[in-house]
């Protein structure tokens, strides 16, 4: 009778059978979430596989936007040339066309007004030499903001100040020029590092060649004065070569 009521109790010589019971959740507890199915696992794997493609599309979109900004700089814009320092400060106060050179390395400007078919005012800055692109300084005792539309491009000993038609145009030019300037500065630093590396390799090559010549000369010289004379001549030659 007991065996019929409780399945855990053995019947006769049978061994006890253990039955696993699932506990009921207590008040305030939530049931555990069901295991992730095939659909969830497939969705996760698809996201992982698509992440490189997403990053590639983002890089391409960024490169395309950057190329558009550079093209806008090359197309140029008409601005007011407010001041030039080279090294003396002048105030031409002329309308000029400001644009990036075709190779993207130079910022150029030339006045719309001409004399004898030549612009009255023209200039060029190598962007790799530009130290800072900044807002024009405040002018006047009671002015708390930069002059509307004005910004400066400064090198070590020279500066040019332009005035755009709107503050939005000024912001666009400053941002785009800074992007190109930073790229040119990085390229200049890489060229400098490459030049220094090549110079060190050349010096090392010459040093090894000098050591080889020294060994050959000393091998052919016997002991005595000739050996010392040869050593002095080789050392003098190495000093002249900068080794």
Label this structure with key terms:
single chain; 243 residues; alpha+beta; PH-domain like; 8-stranded antiparallel β-sheet; two-stranded antiparallel sheet; 4 helices; 10 strands
Helix/strand layout:
Elements: H1 2-5, H2 38-75, E1 77-85, E2 89-90, E3 94-100, E4 106-111, E5 114-115, E6 118-119, E7 122-126, E8 132-135, E9 150-154, E10 159-163, H3 167-220, H4 225-240
Antiparallel strand pairs: 1-2, 1-3, 1-10, 3-4, 4-7, 5-6, 8-9, 9-10
Helix pairs in contact: 2-3, 3-4
The CATH topology assignment of the domain at 72-189 is: PH-domain like
Mean pLDDT: 79
Unreliable segments of 5+ consecutive residues: none
Figure out the total of helices. Answer: 4
- Architecture (CATH level 2) name of the domain at 72-189: Roll
Descriptive overview:
- The chain has 243 residues and is an alpha+beta fold.
- Among the domains are: 72-189, Pleckstrin-homology domain (PH domain)/Phosphotyrosine-binding domain (PTB) (PH-domain like, Roll); 196-240.
- Helices cover 46% and strands 19% of the residues.
- Strands 1, 2, 3, 4, 7, 8, 9 and 10 form an 8-stranded antiparallel beta sheet that branches. Strands 5-6 form a two-stranded antiparallel sheet.
- The N and C termini lie far apart (108 Å).
């Amino acid at each position: 009778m007991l065996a019929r009521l409780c399945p855990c109790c053995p019947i006769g010589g049978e061994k006890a059978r253990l039955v696993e019971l699932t506990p009921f959740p207590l008040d305030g507890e939530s049931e555990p979430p069901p295991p992730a199915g095939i659909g969830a696992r497939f969705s996760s794997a698809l996201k992982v596989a698509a992440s490189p493609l997403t990053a590639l599309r983002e890089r391409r979109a960024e490169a395309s936007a950057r190329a558009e900004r550079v093209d806008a700089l090359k197309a140029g814009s008409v601005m007011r040339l407010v001041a030039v320092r080279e090294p003396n400060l002048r105030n031409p106060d002329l309308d000029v066309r400001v644009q990036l050179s075709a190779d993207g390395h130079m910022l150029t400007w030339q006045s719309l007004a001409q004399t004898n078919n030549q612009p009255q005012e023209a200039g060029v800055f190598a962007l790799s030499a530009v130290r800072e692109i900044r807002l024009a300084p405040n002018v006047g005792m009671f002015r708390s903001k930069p002059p509307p539309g004005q910004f400066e491009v400064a090198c070590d000993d020279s500066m040019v100040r332009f005035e755009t038609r709107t503050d939005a145009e000024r912001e666009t030019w400053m941002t785009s020029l800074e992007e190109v300037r930073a790229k040119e500065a990085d390229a200049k630093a890489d060229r400098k590092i490459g030049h220094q590396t090549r110079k060190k390799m050349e010096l090392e090559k010459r040093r090894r060649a000098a050591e080889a010549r020294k060994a050959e000369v000393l091998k052919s010289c016997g002991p005595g004065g000739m050996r010392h004379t040869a050593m002095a001549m080789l050392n003098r030659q190495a000093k002249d070569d900068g080794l």
